[in-house]
C-alpha cells in the first residue's frame, strides 16, 4: 500500500492560489513559479488560467488582486512565446484597479494594448479628483507634508 496522497487538479490549484497570499515571500514566490509552470503545461493551462482569473475576481484587496497577474508574467519570463489571455479577460479579473496592477498588465501585455484601453483602465472620475483636491486644499498647512511648502505646489488647480 502506498502512502502517497492523491490531490486532484482543482484542489492543487486552490492550494497554490491560497499560498499566493501567505505571509512568507518565499512561499508566495514558489506558488507563483508553480502556477506559471502549470500555465505553460498544455494539459493544465486552460484550467489553471480559469482558476487564476476566478481567484483574482474574488479578491477584495487591490494588492492581493494584483498578485494574480504575477504567474502570467512569470510564465512569459520562462517562455517568451507564452500567449496571455485577451486584455478584456484579464482586465475584467482586476476588480480593484491600481497603479501596481496597471504596471503589471503593461508588462504582461506590452505590445498588445492600445493606449485608449489604458486610459479606460486607469480612469479617475472628475468627482474623485474634485474630492481629493478639496480635501488637500482644505487642510491647514501644518497638517500637509513638507513637500507642499515648496513654491508653486500650494497653487493647486481650481475645482
Order of helices and strands, N to C?
A: HHHHHHHHH
Rg from Cα: 21 Å
Unreliably modeled segments: 152-159
How many separate domains make up the residues? 2
Give the helix proportion (percent range).
Answer: 55-70%
Can you tell me the overall shape? globular
Mean pLDDT: 76
Tell me the number of helical segments per DSSP (H or I, 4 or more residues long). 9
Structural class: mainly alpha
Task: Give a description of the structure.
The protein folds into two domains: 9-123; 124-159, no CATH class. The longest helix is centred in the N-terminal third of the chain and has 16 residues, at 25-40. Helix 1 (9-19) packs antiparallel against helix 2 (25-40), helix 2 (25-40) crosses helix 3 and helix 3 (45-57) crosses helix 6 (87-93). It is mainly alpha-helical. The chain has helices at residues 9-19, 25-40, 45-57, 62-67, 70-78, 87-93, 99-108, 115-121, 126-138. It is built from nine helices and no strands.
Summarize the structure.
By secondary structure, the protein is mainly α. It has helices spanning 9-19, 25-40, 45-57, 62-67, 70-78, 87-93, 99-108, 115-121, 126-138.
What's the structural blueprint in terms of helices and strands?
Blueprint lengths: L8 H11 L5 H16 L4 H13 L4 H6 L2 H9 L8 H7 L5 H10 L6 H7 L4 H13 L21
Helix pairs in contact: 1-2, 1-3, 2-3, 2-5, 3-6
Amino acid at each position: 500500500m502506498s502512502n502517497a496522497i492523491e490531490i486532484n487538479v482543482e484542489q492543487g490549484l486552490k492550494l497554490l492560489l491560497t499560498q499566493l497570499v501567505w505571509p512568507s515571500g518565499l512561499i508566495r514566490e514558489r506558488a507563483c513559479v508553480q502556477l506559471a509552470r502549470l500555465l505553460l503545461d498544455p494539459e493544465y493551462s486552460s484550467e489553471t488560467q480559469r482558476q487564476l482569473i476566478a481567484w483574482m475576481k474574488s479578491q477584495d484587496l487591490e494588492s492581493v488582486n494584483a498578485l494574480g497577474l504575477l504567474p502570467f508574467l512569470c510564465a512569459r519570463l520562462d517562455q517568451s512565446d507564452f500567449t496571455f489571455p485577451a486584455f478584456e479577460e484579464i482586465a475584467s479579473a482586476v476588480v480593484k484597479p491600481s497603479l501596481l496592477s496597471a504596471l503589471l498588465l503593461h508588462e504582461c501585455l506590452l505590445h498588445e494594448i492600445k493606449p485608449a484601453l489604458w486610459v479606460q483602465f486607469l480612469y479617475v472620475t472628475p468627482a474623485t479628483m474634485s474630492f481629493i483636491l478639496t480635501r488637500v486644499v482644505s487642510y491647514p498647512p501644518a497638517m500637509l507634508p513638507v513637500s507642499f511648502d515648496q513654491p508653486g505646489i500650494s497653487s493647486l488647480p481650481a475645482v
